[in-house]
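Aggregate trends can hide what the representation actually does to any particular protein. For completeness, the protein is quoted in full, as a sequence line and a line of structure tokens.
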Amino acid sequence: MVMLVLPLTVVLIFSFGERGASGGYVPAFTLEQYANLPARWTAFKNTMVLAPIGTISSLLIAYPLAYFLAVRADPKWKTVLLVLVIVPFWTSILIRSYAWIFLLGGRGVPAFIDWIGFGSVRLINTPFAVLVGIVYGYLPLMVFPIFVSLDRLDKRLLEASSDLGATPTRTFVQITLPLCVPGIATGCLLVFILLMGEFLIPALLGGGKVFFVGNALVDLFLQSRNWAFGSAVAATLVFIMLISVTIYMRLISRLGTRREDVSLM
């Protein structure tokens, strides 16, 4: 517990300090650093917009994939398919991001789009490119928690629903979806928290035009050496994450009540 709280305490203390003449931190007690937060508004805006969108996009892609692996896939091939989901993690995120730089660059997908007659488009160094990299990089973290929930689903409930005359759609909405809420909640929480601190994918696929708070922190601590302002930015990010996660967990707890009602059917 101390190892978790101590670094955050140091960051909080630094956030009330000042930048030294040659950089670093000078002890003080001032709110000047927090007053300067609007200077990094673009980074906060990009993070608070693209992180939720990236999380939702990952969920929309991961759920059908996890459902297919857990419910529809042949048991003989299930392990092989799961390994294929893991395979991207065997390669560094840096290498995978550089692969997307080529695919989204002028000689990749845009060249193909221009060749088939849809005109010239720019994909690299845009929010879209960052979103693609985010979804690709974090998709496995969303797939596995959902897969585990669906794989543990009592198939007798689905059979009973069918025997009682429920349509497949109604069975999915009233039984399958509520019972896999824990997996969805875990996957979304994992991806969202990691995305809020992401800096590599925006730096590579955003090309310096799409900044996250993580990029701002790298600049403030390593280049500008303004540790006090960087700590204020970091503390604000942690506060935003705590509020977001608290609201999210309350919503999930309400859905959990509904899930318990379904399990009693």
Remarks:
- The chain has one domain: 2-263.
- Residues 2-263 form a domain with the MetI-like fold fold (CATH 1.10.3720.10).
